[in-house]
């Protein structure tokens, strides 16, 4: 399919390079929803519904959400070149000193802060340019890119391409900054327009348009991926923000970039939307299975505690619930959580370790800290 000019056109700028000037959404001619796209949309809608239902069966929805956000933060940041893993992030949160933890773990922490900030703010204001700017500021605060106008729309030209490329050799040159600002404002209007576009198709179009506008000097990819979760939550397609596509985009990175570029060069919105809907369906199904595995894991571990922990089973179950809030723990934390002596807390932790529920991660004799590895592994394998 070739609709050149449907999404916009390259326009030569006074200094000699060409920048892409996008047309506003929705596409014109209208998106062609064939039987394949309709099938993918139906599958994605069903998968989201099952995911939402599965999340409600969890002992505490917020626990799953926080762990899932951690995983998304890691994957979304890795797409942008960070090296930090989920275990690195958890160690950083537990304040465990490890010289092998990549320094860019702070970028992952910022991603979590940006996500949490956005979710709080959605109760006060709509998904908007203002909120996008706030998210961006949180994302780049004090890390790589902090000198590139955090929270501010760019005031200069940017471009996308391999290292060493220039405006004249870039893979893609977004619109000049004054055009980008207006295009972003128009995108906000499109998101809230009362039309008949299915929400999943609307956010698929909007994500691609945001990446084309590229309104910031850094962090566009991460903000663009966050917008998907925020929109689905705002539209009440999900009661909790638990659909994150970074895993899918990372696994299909080249196709992701190719499909985005095809919307610009050939006006091929249809192939992009089919790719996007496939990702929504795949990721929602994976997340649903993870939610089921969490319920099963919790029941298995409650049975182990009931069978093997004797008189300390009640206290052990309280720590088990604690571990779903924070899957890393110290003996001092157990002592404080239960209000018991240090020796008793140490003995309880030892029972968790001997039964395979916790693993010690510092390798130290003192100030030991432990991971709830069986739970963490459910997300590490995503």
UniProtKB/TrEMBL annotation:
All residue ranges annotated as the Fido domain in the record: 127-278
Positions of ATP binding: 80, 214, 218-225, 256-257
Molecular function GO terms recorded: ATP binding
Keyword hit for Nucleotide-binding: yes
Keyword Iron part of the UniProt annotation: no
Pfam family, one: Fic
Active-site residues (renumbered): 214
Keywords, comma-separated and alphabetical: ATP-binding, Nucleotide-binding
Transmembrane segments: none
Name of the molecule in the record: Cell filamentation protein Fic
Organism this protein belongs to: Phyllobacterium zundukense
Species classification: Bacteria, Pseudomonadati, Pseudomonadota, Alphaproteobacteria, Hyphomicrobiales
């Amino acid at each position: 399919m070739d609709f050149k000019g449907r999404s916009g056109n390259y326009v030569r700028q006074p200094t000699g390079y060409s920048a892409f000037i996008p047309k506003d959404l929705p596409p014109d001619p209208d998106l062609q929803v064939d039987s394949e796209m309709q099938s993918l949309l139906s599958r994605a809608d069903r998968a989201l519904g099952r995911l939402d239902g599965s999340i409600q069966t969890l002992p505490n929805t917020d626990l799953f959400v926080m762990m899932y956000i951690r995983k998304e933060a890691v994957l979304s940041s890795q797409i942008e070149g960070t090296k930090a893993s989920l275990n690195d992030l958890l160690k950083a949160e537990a304040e465990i000193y490890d010289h092998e933890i990549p320094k860019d773990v702070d970028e992952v922490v910022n991603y979590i802060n940006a996500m949490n900030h956005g979710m709080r703010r959605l109760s006060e204001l709509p998904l908007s340019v203002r909120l996008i700017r706030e998210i961006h500021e949180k994302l780049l605060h004090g890390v790589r890119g902090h000198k590139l106008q955090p929270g501010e729309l760019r005031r200069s030209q940017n471009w996308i391409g391999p290292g060493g490329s220039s405006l004249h050799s870039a893979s893609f040159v977004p619109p000049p900054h004054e055009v980008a600002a207006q295009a972003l404002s128009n995108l906000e209007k499109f998101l809230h327009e009362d039309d008949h576009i299915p929400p999943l198709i609307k956010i698929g179009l909007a994500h691609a348009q945001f990446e084309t506008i590229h309104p910031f000097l850094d962090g566009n990819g991460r903000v663009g991926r966050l917008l998907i979760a925020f929109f689905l939550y705002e539209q009440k397609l999900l009661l909790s923000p638990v659909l994150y596509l970074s895993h899918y985009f990372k696994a299909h990175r080249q196709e992701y970039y190719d499909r985005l570029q095809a919307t610009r060069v050939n006006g091929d919105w249809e192939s992009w939307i089919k790719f996007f809907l496939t990702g929504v369906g795949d990721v929602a199904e994976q997340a649903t299975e993870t939610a089921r595995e969490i319920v099963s894991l919790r029941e298995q571990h409650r049975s182990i505690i009931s069978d093997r922990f004797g008189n300390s089973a009640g206290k052990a179950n309280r720590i088990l619930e604690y571990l779903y809030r924070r899957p890393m723990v110290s003996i001092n934390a157990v002592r404080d959580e239960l209000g018991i002596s240090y020796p008793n807390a140490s003995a309880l932790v030892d029972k968790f370790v001997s039964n395979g529920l916790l693993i010690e991660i510092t390798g130290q004799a003192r100030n030991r800290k432990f991971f709830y590895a069986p739970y963490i592994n459910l997300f590490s394998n995503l």
